[in-house]
Design brief:
Length: 800
């Protein structure tokens, strides 16, 4: 392999920002006489859509903890009854703070914590076949459990700005099992082979390492809910088998399935030959990597270019061991400065290549050239000890992603071989939608076997789609879809062709927008909305029934005499919706809501209120509810039942998870309640309508009203002048403002029964004839006159 020219002070080409890196002069090249180690002609990773929370483990609280008294009560109780053993909290506060910092630091970074998320499959011994790919991850409050998550593919269309589209099968987490394996101590590693995915997983905790086989027996169909899954330990290597030292890493030969290697905190690795399924294994070889004095117990291993060699990395050195002669060590890489090795990754396309992540740079190495990195990039994130790397290999390119459990930013580096020269394919960049920290991240390609448009003659010009899964500290799984494309290519979930036509038309007819333009734009927005979620229900029919109605006729319900008058358009639109005066609790059941409605209806009908249906007479809500019968008028649980029934018909094809169903049922409940209480109107009696002229506090009015302060209509004063006795001197009277706290008894009674806002009724000034009797009878004695009140204009008519 050719190398770049080095100066006398350089050991390898270390790239950084601000310069093009090393260069070679090629006089025979007609296009360019110079080539540089930095190449800017490759394609980056771009985000498709947004981050999706695939699974979120709810916090665990035991019943004993929930019933436990507060700390303040504990202190008072101990101080009163056990003063001899009570310790003031102020004395313990520094220790509590220090303990919390230790726990927080441990959660963010643990040197012995390996991968906690991996792909796997489950073996069916009866039918002798493997399940589709699943996700295996560490769960539980104390990371002592292992859970499985099935992955279902959904047909989705993505659109490109060059007027092309692709049919994808987007994987989503469908079902999550409870614990299939429990450990007494925190689990520190769950791994599998990225090439040979199968029924085996590796597990490591504080006391042992194990090779586990996943076996299941389906009961009805291929579903975790209807299957018995067993995690069978095939091989268990205890700490006392490796010099009574905790293990740091474990690897397995997934291709030959007969060798397992374990390394402990002291750097002592051991090879175990596995013969048979349950036979006792015997240790065949071991060796200690040199210079372990400055190591914190972190070691990492992987297979070399053959199954007869392994690569072992510590904080300072990386060595190659031949399993046939384990006493010999070949040094591949070492650090002479204060840096430490944080992670290393073995590639699958070229078995001789591997990458090392240090506290200052990312290094690309070849085991055939020990001690001479091919290229390296400085990442300037030396403060972060939780940095890790994953690599996606694409047509000879190594796309390396740095992620962290402290910093959510993910950095991307690309390396490639062109001829025999190593290049940096593109400048390092921040990966889009880097919003979450991660303990472990894995990359799953989408276009190798899951895309219908995939063909055997795939070229580098075809966009490749991958999905990045990340496991967070709270045991939540977050995913993001990425694709490889140049700067001029963009993929989205909505069709570019429709959006471009609207943009062109808007510029052409910017001064003459029409109703048809708005309708076309609405159709495009609706299509974009549906494309982003392929499981939505089309509620456009319901919307048109409720809103786009020309003949909006109210029909009275709960009325003894149904006559033609109730079918007429109500001239006075001062109608309250049930939503204006009643808001049920979020946790209230339908039965509790119906009981509240019965009480409200009984109380209001006795006082002369009339209850109306705001649904057009000729329409049926959702096409099935008829308000001909009294019970259906307000028993809107029918809406909920129909929504669930409709969802059940389509849920089988969508394979919704248990978590999706719970949220869907909650959403449908809220929809049915909102539709139900918003489709019932309450009209006050005539006496109440007359009493609306009483003054109401201006603060009771909401933002849907405005006060006209500039115009005082003179006709409000004319009734006062008409009742004024001729010859009476106004100077004999003392004028004062009306007491605004006076409220009609009917209004007060109405609000005592409800805790909601008052009815939205317009107010007009009080005349002498409208005053209470004690005012009008003795007006001359009390020398009291009313002042006109400014008229309040309503922006809309109540009830709509």
């Amino acid at each position: 392999m050719s190398t770049w020219p080095l100066s006398t002070s350089e050991t390898h080409i270390c790239l950084s920002y601000g310069n093009p890196g090393a260069a070679l002069y090629l006089p025979k090249d007609q296009n360019s006489k110079w080539i540089f180690a930095k190449n800017h002609k490759d394609i980056p990773l771009k985000a498709l859509g947004h981050n999706i929370v695939e699974y979120n483990e709810l916090p665990f609280f035991s019943e004993e903890f929930l019933n436990f008294p507060s700390r303040t009560l504990q202190e008072k109780y101990l101080k009163t009854n056990y003063s001899d053993i009570w310790v003031p909290r102020d004395l313990l506060r520094p220790y509590i703070k220090e303990s919390g910092e230790i726990i927080s630091t441990y959660n963010m970074h643990d040197a012995l914590r390996g991968n906690l998320l991996a792909e796997c499959q489950v073996w069916d011994p009866k039918n002798r076949n493997l399940s589709p790919k699943m996700l295996c991850f560490v769960s539980g409050e104390n990371s002592t459990e292992i859970s499985l998550a099935t992955i279902k593919n959904y047909n989705t269309t993505v659109y490109c700005n060059n007027n092309t589209e692709k049919k994808l099968k987007i994987p989503r987490v469908s079902e999550v099992t409870k614990s299939i394996f429990s450990s007494k101590t925190p689990i520190r590693q769950v791994s599998n082979s990225s090439i040979y995915n199968g029924k085996y997983i590796l597990l490591r905790n504080h006391t042992f390492s194990a090779l586990i086989e996943l076996i299941y027996q389906p009961l009805k169909r291929i579903s975790l809910k209807n299957a018995s899954i067993t995690a069978v330990p095939l091989v268990i290597i205890e700490n006392y088998d490796t010099e009574n030292s905790e293990h740091s890493d474990i690897i397995f030969d997934f291709s030959n399935k007969n060798q397992l290697v374990v390394i402990n905190k002291k750097g002592n690795w051991s090879l175990w030959n596995i013969e048979g399924r349950y036979r006792t294994i015997e240790k065949s070889s071991s060796n200690v990597l040199e210079d372990i004095g400055q190591n914190d117990g972190w070691w990492k291993m992987d297979w070399g270019s053959s199954s007869k060699s392994i690569i072992v990395s510590g904080r300072r050195k990386t060595g190659l061991f031949d399993l046939r002669d384990p006493s010999k060590q070949h040094l591949l890489y070492s650090l002479s400065n204060s840096d430490n090795i944080l992670d290393f990754w073995k590639t699958s396309q070229n078995l001789s290549d591997f990458f090392i992540l240090t506290t200052s740079e990312v290094c690309w190495l070849d085991e055939r050239q020990p001690g001479k990195p091919l290229l390296s990039w400085k990442h300037y994130r030396s403060y972060d000890p939780s940095l890790k790397i994953i690599i996606d290999e694409y047509f000879g390119n190594f796309n390396l992603i740095l992620y962290s459990n402290i910093n959510p930013i993910k950095s991307c580096y690309q390396f490639s071989l062109k001829g025999n020269l190593p290049f940096s394919s593109i400048f390092p960049y921040e990966l889009q939608n880097s919003q979450n920290t991660s303990i472990t991240s894995i990359i799953c390609p989408l276009n190798e076997s899951t895309n219908k448009f995939e063909s055997n003659n795939e070229s580098k010009n075809d966009s490749r789609f991958v999905k990045l899964y990340s496991l967070g500290s709270e045991k939540n799984i977050v995913s993001q879809i990425y694709y490889y494309a140049d700067n001029d290519t963009e993929y989205t979930f909505h069709d570019y062709r429709f959006s471009q036509s609207i943009i062109k038309k808007s510029y052409k007819y910017i001064n003459s927008s029409s109703e048809s333009d708005d309708n076309t734009k609405k159709e495009i927005e609706k299509k974009m909305f549906y494309d982003n979620d392929f499981r939505l229900i089309n509620f456009s029919k319901l919307y048109n029934e409720l809103v786009d109605v020309n003949n909006f006729i109210f029909r009275e319900i709960f009325s003894k005499n149904q006559n033609k008058e109730t079918d007429k358009i109500i001239e006075n639109y001062e109608i309250l919706t049930l939503r204006d005066i009643y808001i049920p609790s979020e946790k209230a059941s339908f039965d509790e809501i119906f009981l509240d409605l019965k009480n409200i209806f009984q109380t209001y009908t006795e006082k002369g209120w009339k209850i109306y249906s705001l649904i057009p007479k000729s329409q049926k809500l959702l096409g099935f509810i008829d308000f001909a019968s009294e019970s259906d008028s307000w028993n809107f649980k029918n809406i909920y039942d129909t929504l669930i029934k409709h969802w059940s018909k389509i849920s089988s094809s969508n394979n919704s998870s248990e978590h999706d169903e719970r949220y869907i049922h909650e959403i449908f409940k809220n929809i049915s309640i909102e539709l139900g209480i918003s489709s019932i109107g309450l009209k006050p009696p005539k006496s109440f309508m007359e009493s609306k002229n009483d003054l109401l506090d201006i603060s009771l009015l909401n933002s849907s009203f405005e006060i006209d302060k500039n115009n005082t209509e003179l006709e409000n004063i004319y009734p006062l002048l008409d009742e004024w006795e001729v010859g009476v001197n106004p100077d004999l009277y003392k004028f004062q403002a009306i007491d605004k706290t006076v409220v009609n008894d009917n209004i007060a009674l109405f609000y005592e029964q409800t805790s909601s806002a008052p009815p939205r009724l317009t107010s007009k000034p009080l005349t002498v004839a409208d005053k209470p009797p004690q005012m009008t009878d003795n007006i001359n004695d009390h020398k009291f006159l009313s002042q006109p009140v400014k008229k309040i204009k309503s922006k809309r008519k109540a009830g709509f």
